[in-house]
Amino acid sequence: MNEVDAVIARRLDSGVPLVAQVSRYIISAGGKRLRPALLLLISAALGCRSDQRFNLAAVVEFIHTATLLHDDVVDESTLRRGRATANESFGNPASVLVGDFLYSRAFQMMLDAGDMRVMAILADATNVIAEGEVLQLMNMHDASLDEAGYLRVIRSKTAKLFEASARLGAVLAKAPPALEEACAGYGQAMGTAFQVIDDVLDYDGDAHEMGKNLGDDLREGKATLPLIAAMERGTAQQRDTIRTAIENGAVDQLDAIVSIVRETGALEVTRAAAAAEAQRAIDCARQLPVNSYAEGLVQLAAQLLQRRN
Q1: CB-neighbour burial class of residue 120 (10 A; exposed 0-12, middle 13-18, buried 19+)
Q2: pLDDT at position 269 over 80
Q3: Residue 29 domain-assigned (yes or no)
Q4: Does the residue 141 lie in any domain?
Q5: Disulfide engineering: 309 pairs with which of 67, 209, 252, 284, CB 3.0-4.6 Å?
Q6: How far is it, in rounded angstroms, from Cα 89 to Cα 95?
Q7: Is residue 264 part of a domain?
């Protein structure tokens, strides 16, 4: 990861000062670096020691960071990772344009791999992520969204880059097709579980620990799995309360909605969905050669369910 951070710092250089300033602002905020970590762990588990793993790990982090910059503008977010978002600090135009810079810089870096397969995986992932963003936008304030519709969004918007990161590790290692698919399956399951737990924490987390405002999803009119499960299990009055809040993007009833989510057992339902995805990831990781890196992938999936931020 130190090597990846060195690549990130080197490739953020730009002759335009504001580009480097905004890019460094959001990347220096830290984050979990899960997508680069997946690529490194899988390539190492499969015996790959190519320096390209550091370059491509930086590429996926750049793509992820670009999506964050654009997301915060679309969602009008003000807090991420415990501090003001880039759009709050530098304005929407700078955030959008620097996000574009990071996307294009990522594609420049992809060329270093000299592998059309790598290009195809990342180009496809970037396109699917954009589709997921638009799909989520279409679903805003739609209280009729069901679990299948919810999963379709997060498997496009969030899990696709996890999947691509894991697949790239296998491609770098020249893994056979079946093993590559197991790695991609691990990434998709991990990405899905990560987002489901993230949605749990919006109703069962601590704002200080999470580094973002609780209730942001509701304010944006997002029908996430905790709300979907609560509406399925709640009384008519409870359903109406949640439906009205989603349709209006209102947080004035947030405390009441948190109580409904907890009383109906919706958090347990949602955590069980995340646990099923984590188990799917573990099953995929068990198909890799037995070594400390593969065991690290298993532990990562198991610990995901315990995250509080």
Answers
A1: exposed
A2: yes
A3: yes
A4: yes
A5: 209
A6: 9
A7: yes
Closest CA to 118 of 14, 66, 48, 68: 48
Task: Name the pTM for this structure.
Answer: 0.93
- Kind and range of the H or E run holding 260: helix 254-263
Separation CA 65–CA 88 (nearest Å): 16
3-state secondary structure of 83: strand
d(CA 94, CA 199): 28
Q: What does each C-alpha distance from 263 to 216, 232, 252 come to in angstroms?
A: 21, 13, 19
Facing residues of 79 across strands?
A: 84
Q: Which residue has the tokens 């793993």?
A: 53
Cβ burial of 296 (10 Å; 0-12, 13-18, 19+) is middle
pLDDT (tens digit, 9 = 90+) per residue, 71-126? 999 988 888 877 899 999 999 999 999 999 999 999 999 999 899 999 999 999 99
Q: Name which of 20-29, 94-103, 222-231, 233-242 the model is least confident about.
A: 20-29
Q: How far apart are the first and last CA of the chain?
A: 20
CATH of the domain at 194: 1.10.600.10
Question: What does the DSSP 8-state code read for residue 79?
Answer: E
Query: What interhelical angle do 147-157 and 159-172 show, nearest 10?
Result: 50
**At 302, is the pLDDT very low, low, confident or very high (cuts 50, 70, 90)?**
very high
Q: For residue 279, is it within any domain? A: yes
The residue with tokens 């188990």 is 279
- For 143-198, write each residue's pLDDT tens digit: 999 999 999 999 999 999 999 999 999 999 999 999 999 999 999 999 999 999 99
* Structural domain count of the chain: 1
Residue type, 5: D
Domain hosting 79: range is 2-304
Rounded Cα–Cα distance for residues 287 and 272 (Å): 23
What is the C-alpha to C-alpha distance for residues 230 and 141, in angstroms, rounded to an integer? Answer: 16
